[in-house]
From TrEMBL, chain A:
It comes from Cellulomonas phragmiteti. The chain crosses the membrane at residues 101-121, 133-155, 197-217, 263-284, 304-327. This is Peptide ABC transporter permease. Its main location: membrane. Keywords: Cell membrane, Membrane, Transmembrane, Transmembrane helix, Transport. SUPFAM superfamilies: MetI-like. Pfam families: BPD_transp_1, BPD_transp_1_N. Gene3D superfamilies: MetI-like (1.10.3720.10). Belongs to the binding-protein-dependent transport system permease family. The keyword Transmembrane helix applies. It is a multi-pass membrane protein. InterPro entries: BPD_transp_1_N, MetI-like, MetI-like_sf. Residues 95-324 form the ABC transmembrane type-1 domain.
TrEMBL record, chain B:
Gene3D superfamilies: P-loop containing nucleotide triphosphate hydrolases (3.40.50.300). It comes from Cellulomonas phragmiteti. Transmembrane segments: none annotated. The keyword Nucleotide-binding applies. Keywords: ATP-binding, Nucleotide-binding, Transport. InterPro entries: AAA+_ATPase, ABC_transp_ATP-bind, ABC_transporter-like_ATP-bd, ABC_transporter-like_CS, Oligopep_ABC_C, P-loop_NTPase. This is ABC transporter ATP-binding protein. PROSITE patterns: ABC_TRANSPORTER_1 (PS00211), ABC_TRANSPORTER_2 (PS50893). Residues 18-266, 324-574 form the ABC transporter domain. Residues 306-316 have a biased composition (Low complexity). SUPFAM superfamilies: P-loop containing nucleoside triphosphate hydrolases.
Length: 334, 588
């Protein structure tokens, strides 16, 4: 197991190196440049040249790349042309918000997707099943940003049940020792701050979690249908195992094997979905900042954020792979 | 709990009494009655075997008794009286309480019947707990006792392992331990050993018989194997197409069958008393399998008709150079080491094997799983390259890579595989399957190919009406005939049959063996016949090689090897054949 982790970490180095080259070129292929984006359309050529010189955008591309790479190796992700602050600081300031959102989105997807899929499978061919299949199809096909706008319009604007934007009401005065607002409220016993942050998370998390929810429900349904006809389920019944044990230890546990793989894959989707969701709900996370950086052609932020997200994604996937062994003993001996 | 109840061999009241049972399955095409008017009794401590081919309703009957019919099946008439109580009238809750504690089951396939994600010990523990036998530490201690009792060595450590760390035989022992954990009075054993090697089969059955005898458990043994039924059961019930056609004392049924179907079943059952299927004398005409005209004891002095001298055509061919010469062939598989720097190791699947296959004859390679016999077949088909040694086909070394020679070689060597359900493309019609090799090798135009396909179907005795059918619409025997027709399309010299009849019911198996013998006679085919079933080998082969752990441990003509085996291993294999001492279908 340790070897697996070490090998995967070693593989991460060439992957990230390749990604850094692609990112670097992609960012520079975007139309316009950071100077014009910063100074506006009517900037004088002198002002543009000064900005370009300041950030080194006038030097040859290989040189720019090597400089950037050299800084990266020292843990320096550069400085945002828009805010003037180090990229890493900007990332770390927003990352907790995105984690909170993604975790809650995942909770929605797994917490509703698995029961929905299970119930549909157990009532295969009946009304509940058909409803679940149609709903999950709808969930897969609906675009995230559309769903986000719909939820915001209905539950925030029309019904007013949830706040429409931000992480916490601006009127709320709270201390933030960790940056995870829900957790902070718990730690400082400012329960109202925790609750307030949680209500801000509900709509974005629903929007973010819907597609993974639908996918997880469909995979769970297919997997349970498959497993419940397995020989070992029949044998479990034949040896007198109680109903709950047959359903839990035998059917559900075995049905979870493909589902766990799916959940691992959905985590990438959550991170990319966060960009759209955060933008719609003006949620100050990594995604929203990244989307803003695209409009401002903030090279350092685009490169740094995407690289950091890639690292997070790779580590999460490694964790998921390692956790397969917990569910499937056959993976442990390999 | 551990003490065996003292039981009378046959009380007045039967333990299980099935009366006019009818089971119907609802399908989209309407309802289908799988079991009709079935009646028989099982007395306490008695072993009753239900024998029949697939689709005869024997497993459905067993499933009805334990209340585990598939979702679309139900008992539509009759009674299942167990200890005087009608199980058909019981609700699901009462039926659930009965399972495990009063009626146990040992399922067919040990590979698929254990929960793969739970430790074996835990799977016995939960059986004990849910049947209210023992809990916690007491259950765990009892589990070790039960596993030991079922013949699992080192049970304490083994209980901590997962099913994938067990061999097939060990898994079946664990399943037996579970089936008997709560000391049921009736054990349903549904083909308990048909997925296991013949020697393992014997030890498992011996263990099961000892245990059920000692505990006084009645056994309802479901099997397709008449020899096994005769050897293990007190009474035999023969089922055919959902009905009981004959029932009675095991020996009587097997020695003096009254029903036509039982007679056919007995005649088709391969046994060591069988002889090489001979057709030359009948001008190549295939008869229904008839009882071989040999003395029951099969002693050497009676072996007047040795296969080599039986057919003039075969005898003439014997002087020609052999079609296949395998010399010192070894195959080592590399097993990748664990982790980043783990060292890989070699596993020798085939170890210095040499043999020749004479033209127009059949060489059988027999052995248990893991003996290397299938690796030999795959190397013979040039699907695997040997690590060392040479394989010469008609004088040419086929282990040397040569593109044009390879195409020619593939035309002349064709395979027939074990599973006709898996080896035919489900999206190809029969016509397309048989025509494909002709098309690939660019033989003839459309009309010629069409004529050839019809001719091939005729050769394997399939009606032309099946041309447009898909594999799913065919029976197992029909599928295997299609596979044979496909193999013959290119007029090969050598046909490699890898367990070609192992997945078939005895009667179908016998028909296919006769077909193969007939085709060999008519087309001068040479067979390399890979099998684990010695009784089948006896019917089809001229010469035999016995493989064990990658090596050939014994070789010779079939009669020599079977009648006077020289190695203990061959003797063990022969002794393990169920019902070998019985002379099926012939008066004692």
């Amino acid at each position: 197991m340790t070897r697996l982790i070490l090998r995967r970490l070693a593989l991460l180095v060439p992957t990230l190196l390749g990604l850094s080259v692609l990112l670097f070129l992609w960012v520079r292929a975007l139309p316009g440049g950071p100077a014009t984006a910063l100074l506006g359309e009517r900037a004088t050529p002198e002002a543009v040249a000064r900005i370009n010189q300041l950030y080194g955008f006038d030097r040859p591309l290989p040189q720019q790349y090597l400089t950037w790479l050299g800084q990266l190796l020292q843990g320096n992700f550069g400085v945002s042309t828009r805010t003037g602050r180090p990229v890493l600081d900007e990332f770390l300031a927003r990352f907790p918000a995105t984690i909170e959102l993604s975790l809650l989105g995942l909770l929605v997807a797994v917490g509703l997707g698995i029961p929905l899929g299970y119930v549909a499978a157990r009532r295969q061919g009946r009304l509940v099943d058909h409803a679940a299949v149609v709903a999950s199809l709808l969930g897969v096909t609906i675009p995230v940003f559309f769903l986000a706008f719909l939820l915001k319009w209905l539950f925030a604007v029309q019904l007013g049940w949830f706040p429409s934007a931000g992480r916490q009401s601006s009127a709320m005065i709270a201390t933030h020792p960790t940056g995870f607002y829900v957790l902070d409220g718990v730690l400082t016993r400012e329960w109202d701050a925790s609750w307030n942050a949680l209500t801000h998370l509900v709509l974005p998390a629903l929007a973010l979690g819907t597609i993974p929810l639908a996918i997880i429900a469909r995979i769970t349904r297919a997997s349970v249908i498959d497993v419940q006809h397995a020989d070992y389920v029949r044998t479990a019944r034949a040896k007198g195992l109680s109903g709950p044990h047959v359903r839990g230890r035998v059917i559900l546990h075995n049905a979870m094997l493909p589902v766990s793989t799916t959940i691992g894959l959905q985590i990438g989707l959550l991170l990319s979905g966060a960009v759209l969701t955060e933008t719609v709900f003006a949620f100050p996370g990594v995604g929203k900042f990244l989307a803003d950086a695209v409009f401002d052609l903030d090279y350092a932020v685009l490169q740094g954020f995407i690289l950091l997200i890639a690292v997070v994604y790779a580590l999460v996937n490694l964790a998921v792979d390692v956790s397969y062994g917990l569910i499937d003993p056959r993976m442990r001996t390999r | 709990m551990t003490d065996a109840p003292q039981h009378p061999a046959g009380g007045t009241e039967p333990l299980l009494s099935i009366r006019d049972l009818e089971v119907t399955f609802r399908t989209e095409a309407g309802s289908a009655t799988a079991v009709r008017g079935v009646s028989f009794d099982v007395r306490a401590g008695q072993t009753v075997a239900v024998v029949g081919e697939s689709g005869s309703g024997k497993s459905t009957t067993a499933a009805a008794v334990i209340g585990l019919l598939a979702g679309n099946g139900s008992v539509t008439a009759g009674q299942i009286l167990f200890e005087g109580e009608d199980l058909v009238a019981l609700g699901p809750e009462a039926m659930h309480r009965l399972r495990g504690s009063r009626i146990g089951m040992v399922p067919q396939d040990p590979m698929s019947n254990l929960n793969p994600v739970r430790r074996v010990g835990a799977q016995v523990d939960e059986t004990l707990e849910d049947n209210g036998v023992a809990r916690g530490a007491a259950a765990r201690a009892r589990t070790v006792e039960l596993l030991t009792e079922a013949g699992l060595p080192d049970a304490e450590r083994r209980a901590q392992q997962y099913p994938h760390e067990f061999s097939g035989g060990m898994r079946q022992r664990a399943l037996i331990a579970m089936g008997l954990a709560a000391r049921p009075r009736l054990l349903i054993a549904d083909e308990p050993t048909s997925a296991l090697d013949v020697t393992v089969q014997r030890t498992i059955l011996d263990g099961l018989t000892d245990l059920t005898d000692r505990l006084g458990v009645a056994v309802l043994l479901i099997t397709h194997d008449l020899g096994l039924a005769a050897e293990r059961a007190d009474r035999v019930v023969v089922m055919y197409r959902g009905e009981v056609v004959e029932e009675g004392d095991a020996r009587t049924i097997l020695t003096a069958p009254r029903h036509e179907y039982t007679r056919r079943l007995l005649a088709a059952a391969p046994s060591l008393a069988s002889r090489r299927i001979e057709l030359a004398r009948h001008g190549g005409h295939v008869d229904e399998p008839a009882p071989a005209d040999v003395p029951p004891d099969g002693s050497p002095e009676h072996r007047g008709t040795a296969p080599a001298s039986a057919s003039p055509a075969l005898a003439a061919d014997a002087s020609a150079p052999p079609l296949v010469e395998v010399e010192h062939v070894t195959k080592v598989f590399t097993i990748r080491g664990r982790g980043l720097l783990g060292r890989s190791s070699g596993f020798t699947a085939v170890d210095d094997v040499s043999f020749v296959v004479p033209r127009g004859r059949t060489l059988a390679v027999v052995g248990e799983s893991g003996s290397g016999k299938s690796t030999v077949a795959r190397m013979m088909l040039a699907l695997l390259a040997p690590t060392s040694g040479t394989i010469r086909f008609d004088g040419t070394d086929v282990t040397q890579p040569d593109r044009s020679a390879e195409v020619a070689f593939r035309r002349r060597v064709q395979p027939i595989f074990q599973d006709p359900y898996a080896s035919l493309d489900p999206l190809f019609t029969v016509y397309r399957t048989v025509e494909e090799p002709l098309r690939v090798h660019g033989i003839g135009d459309r009309a010629q190919r069409h004529a050839r396909v019809r001719e091939l179907l005729d050769q394997v005795a399939l009606p032309a009406g099946l041309l447009r059918r898909y594999p799913a619409e065919l029976s197992g025997g029909q599928r295997q005939r299609v596979a044979i027709a496909r193999a013959l399309a290119l007029e090969p010299d050598l046909v490699v049959c890898d367990e070609a009849v192992s997945a078939l019911d005895v009667i179908v198996q016998s028909q296919i063996l006769h077909l193969l013998a007939d085709l060999q006679e008519r087309l001068g085919l040479t067979y390399l016949f890979i099998s684990h079933d010695l009784a089948v080998v006896r019917q089809i082969a001229d010469e035999v090689c016995v493989m064990q752990e990658g090596r050939i441990v014994e070789r010779g003509t079939v009669d020599d090897v079977f009648d006077t085996p020289r190695t203990t291993y061959t003797r063990t294999l022969l002794d393990a054949i169920p019902g070998r001492d019985l002379d099926l279908g012939r008066p004692a």
